[in-house]
Hints:
five-stranded parallel beta sheet, 21 helices, alpha/beta, TIM Barrel, 3 domains, Rossmann fold
Amino acid sequence: MRNGDPDSLSVLIVEDNPGDRRLTEFAVRDACREADMRCMVEAVDSLAAGIACVGRSDVAVDAILLDLGLPDANGLDGLRAMHRVCPRVPVIVLTGLSDLRAATEALKNGASDYMEKSEVQPRNLFRAIRYAMERKKSETELVRLARTDPLTGLLNRRAFFEHLEAALVQARRSELACAVILFDIDHFKEINDVFGHKTGDDVLIEATRQLRVALRETDSIGRIGGDEFAVLATNLKSASSAMEIAEKIVKVVGAISELNDMRVEISISVGISVFPMDDSSADVLVSHADLAMYKSKASKKGSISFFDARMDETVKARHALKQSMPQDITDGRFYLLFQPIVDATSRRIIAAEGLARWRDPEDKIIAPGEFIPIAEESGSIGNLGNRLLEEACGQIRGWADMHKTLVPISLNISPIQCRDPGFGARLINTIEKSEISPHMINIEITESAIFKNLDVIQKNLDMIKAFGVGVHIDDFGTGYSSLSLLRDLPLNALKIDRSFVRDIGGEAGSEMIIQAIVELSKKLGFQTIAEGVETEAQVARLRDIGVNGLQGYYFSKPVPGAQLANWLAKSESYLVA
Length: 577
């Protein structure tokens, strides 16, 4: 209804009496005509309709004329309900009662003014609406001033804590993390002493401007002390997300280098506390962030610290991995080891699983359980997956060129890769460029990957299977696959999770589950592979049940490609164990 034009007025009338509703509407329109203003009026006959009207995204009203005698609201209850829904819009109560007490109660409960219906004349009504709007504007401005830092326009300390309290309530419901990121400007007193307080104020104002540009719309920023700022970051998936926001703050504030034609050098110290890991109290979270900030001050400028020492170490280590991952993918620091898969009866090597490893610049080997979540979170998983596929294809190509015995290589595929519409085409392109048979590559996906974006995954798997690449379900039995999916998806094999293999011979339930998987696979035309095989007794029982392939430390740990090639070259019937 409203477009922000000062020469127009939009009014919502909530009145159940048709005659009174028409008279009030005529009075509003006549008043606007006399004042040479455009008029937009919407009239409804119930409180529910009025609340629905102000709740619509295309409706914004300047004032509400509300009857106290509505069919779905009892007296002042309607006023209270309307005030809750739109506290910033002035409400003028209309009533047929000439009752000073009712007027007083209405004003106490949020009304901006009170008019008897017999007094509703164009000029009186227009005056009441304009006065109500001016009062509401003044009230709103006073509230804003009471909650705002006068220099920077940011939330003041009191308002920031109110935002934090509300965010903690929401975080408990959503089970997402939120963080308090506290920082102040290093040696700010020296800036004031050397350049003057005017320049000091300009530093704070410029820091505020940079923060508003750099941070998310959902982040709340407050100035809670002289040169001390607080950022409330909500809806965080992990503590490392808070680290990224803090790094952005350090970067943008530290970029301030000139003010009032003078060179200045700005640095900040940052402390972070995270809910729910640190505490559930607003006061304590801010206190913890303050302690962490002073820990940063004892370090080099631009330092960031978490309150919890263990979290500080873990998040920083994880963040360092995330930062170095893209370059290390390019530099070839990710590589594959190969764990043989053997035939359950002959014990010949029939395939191998390629298992990713990461050698960091200090020659520390990082396991996939540590780096795969980082790759998925940072968006590097696609590049990493393609790099490992290139290595597997290159390994097979090298074996073929040396006339080595070949076996298919299986690669684990992230759910994120599977859900990418371009995944299938990229995989096929990589294999074609390597000039190897597509039958030499299998992909392994977990059950959990199947249930999101099923249409996209189905198309990718259909394309891959038609090209000749094998498709295996990894860790089968621990997810929630439905029989219809097993029937419809283009699969070649099910890999039985190690938890069932571990308990075979001990728990009857585990053995029965393995038997059921084997029988189901036979009927659907799939092979079965048991993971985590560690004893001869497990080998014998799995063979008797009818499992096709076995994989585990009983036969071999993951080994370099050269060692696997040597084993394959010795004898076609080579027994690993």
